[in-house]
Amino acid sequence: MLPANRAVGEAPAHFGATSVRFASDSGTNISVYPTVSDAVHNRVRKRLGFLHHLVAPLLLIQLHPRLGIATDQLRPIDQLPKLTCPVLIASGDSDAHTTGNETRRMFAACKEPKRLVLFEGAAHVDLLAHAPAKYEREILGFLDDVFARPR
User: What digits encode the pLDDT tens for the residues 66-81?
Assistant: First the structure.
């Protein structure tokens, strides 16, 4: 989650810092996993196919002993319903790292006002480089709409 006027807010929101309180006018979420479990399974599945069911849990179980972080602390999707500002969720529709289903789950977790933007043919890539006109129209348009409103 990237509060538009708080660039430093991205990491705490992605890591599920429940003590973080955003004073933000809008939030954007571009190609972000809903949970670390989803992210690890997707990445392992991409390389090992069905074996992800065996390998991903072995990787995930290492989070707490190695980093002191539990998997339930790495669930950006849990933070979305707490936002009280307009939210934009954007991703590529061919993204194997953050799937279309996961992107739609993230969008569903948000309160209104919210906007979903899917970039056709885009994988887990720089969406601005993939489709500059659409990016400008949708992403920058969202921010223009949010900041043009009277406060």
Answer: 999 999 999 999 999 9
Q: Establish whether the linkage from the previous residue to 113 is cis, with ω within 30° of 0.
A: yes
d(CA 16, CA 80) in angstroms, rounded, equals 10
- What pTM, to 2 d.p., does this model score? 0.76
Specify whether the CB–CB gap between 76 and 13 falls below 8 A: yes
Give 114's contacts (C-beta < 8 A, 6+ positions apart).
86, 87, 88, 89, 107
Residue 43 CB coordination number (10 Å): 17
- Give bridge partners of residue 2 from the DSSP assignment: 28
Between CA 80 and CA 77 the distance in angstroms is 5
